[in-house]
């Protein structure tokens, strides 16, 4: 019985010369920078839009880590701090 072997040959090609490899590295870094830029822009837009619609915490029941920025912010906004949990970072 004859076994049929199929060679997929995905066509992966790699640059052989030094200038071509340098171009490939620069192309990858350009793509990385562009993706980072778009991600940062999108995140910034979402953050700024959520800051415009910030709700008051007056009387709202919250649970926060004690001795944290969130605890101070909750007290500053007159939130109803029901539970405080010890912060594992401070020991």
Tell me what portion of residues adopts beta-strand conformation. 5-15%
Helix-strand pattern, N to C? HEHE
How many DSSP-defined strands?
A: 2
User: What's the overall geometry?
Assistant: elongated
Radius of gyration, in Å, reads 27 Å
The N- and C-terminal alpha carbons lie at a distance of 71 Å
Mean pLDDT: 82
How does this structure look, described?
By secondary structure, the protein is α+β, with helices and mostly antiparallel strands. The protein is built from two helices and two strands. The radius of gyration is 27 Å and the shape is elongated. The mean pLDDT is 82.
List descriptors.
two-stranded parallel ribbon, elongated, transmembrane helix, K_chnl_dom, Potassium channel domain-containing protein, 2 strands, membrane, transmembrane, alpha+beta, 2 helices, 91 residues, single chain
Give the topology.
Layout: H1 18-52, E1 61-65, H2 69-76, E2 80-85
Parallel strand pairs: 1-2
Transmembrane segments: 20-46
Keywords: Membrane, Transmembrane, Transmembrane helix
Protein name: Potassium channel domain-containing protein
């Amino acid at each position: 019985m004859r076994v049929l072997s199929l060679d997929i040959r995905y066509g992966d090609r790699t640059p052989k010369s030094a200038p071509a490899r340098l171009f490939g590295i620069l192309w990858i870094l350009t793509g990385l920078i562009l993706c980072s830029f778009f991600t940062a822009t999108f995140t910034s837009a979402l953050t700024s839009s959520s800051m415009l619609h910030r709700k008051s915490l007056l009387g709202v029941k919250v649970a926060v880590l004690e001795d944290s920025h969130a605890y101070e912010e909750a007290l500053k906004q007159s939130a109803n701090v029901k539970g405080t949990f010890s912060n594992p970072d401070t020991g």
